[in-house]
Design brief:
Blueprint (H helix, E strand, L loop, with lengths): L1 E4 L2 E4 H27 L6 H8 L3 H7 L3 H16 L1 H10 L3 H18 L1 H10 L4 H27 L9 H11 L2 H10 L4 H16 L18
Helix pairs in contact: 1-2, 1-7, 4-8, 5-6, 6-8, 6-10, 6-11, 7-8, 8-9, 9-11
């Protein structure tokens, strides 16, 4: 049996799959908003279901319990921040300063675009194992991406010779962590543009050989599109 959509036909199975995907997106968007507004502990599956206009069982069938929702939201963050595209763009670059600049640009997206949710998880983590697990998984992904970029620089003999891969990855990871962006913006009143420029410039000077740090200003200018 086929369903008609705007004059065209589409297999019913395909339509069901699309509807299921849309329902999942609605559930995750609703959960993200409620977690940010009410806090993780205070947000129940029933509340998410009511706000999303679905049955409680639909949430369990589509995503799972609250723990699964949090982990799924990490994937939403990666998708909305454009992590996959950014990784491909970094791999296509030959200039190490530009690669570092792109790495900083992508890490900026998380505290800037998902700051409220991340703040909720930070507050909940000491008493909510699910929140702690989600934060740990987010940090694991951050460290993995950081280590991949630094490994590339080392393999191409671009990294400063007195730095090990692990030490350089530690430096990059610390400078681009959510906590660094949050402290600069919330405690010291920096803009995200100012953070991006300063962090990029500092990392270039810390990680690359001296001859490679004479870069054009365009390499460190923010582009938050």
């Amino acid at each position: 049996m086929e369903a008609s959509v705007k004059g065209m036909t589409r297999p019913a199975g395909t339509r069901r799959h699309q509807q299921a995907a849309e329902t999942r997106c609605t559930i995750l968007a609703t959960a993200r908003r409620l977690f940010s507004d009410r806090g993780y502990s205070a947000t129940t599956i029933s509340a998410i279901a009511a706000e999303a206009g679905v049955a409680v069982q639909t949430i369990y069938d589509s995503v799972g319990p609250k723990r699964a929702i949090l982990l799924a939201l990490l994937d939403v963050m990666d998708d909305e921040a454009g992590v996959a595209n950014a990784c491909r763009e970094i791999a296509q670059q030959s200039d190490p300063a530009t690669q570092i600049a792109l790495g900083v640009k992508i890490t900026r997206q998380f505290p800037e675009r998902f700051g409220e949710l991340i703040g909720t998880l930070l507050s909940a983590a000491p008493v909510e194992p699910d929140a702690a697990e989600a934060l740990n998984e987010g940090m694991r992904r951050h460290r993995a991406g950081t280590h991949s970029l630094i490994r590339y620089l080392a393999d191409h003999q671009i990294l400063r010779p007195d730095l090990t891969v692990d030490r350089a990855a530690d430096i990059f990871g610390l400078m681009t962590s959510v906590s660094t962006f949050r402290q600069l913006t919330e405690d010291y009143g920096w803009t995200f543009d100012e953070c991006q420029v300063w962090i990029t410039d500092t990392l270039i000077r810390l990680l690359l050989p001296e001859k490679a740090t004479d870069i054009q200003e365009a390499n460190v200018q923010p582009d938050s599109r």
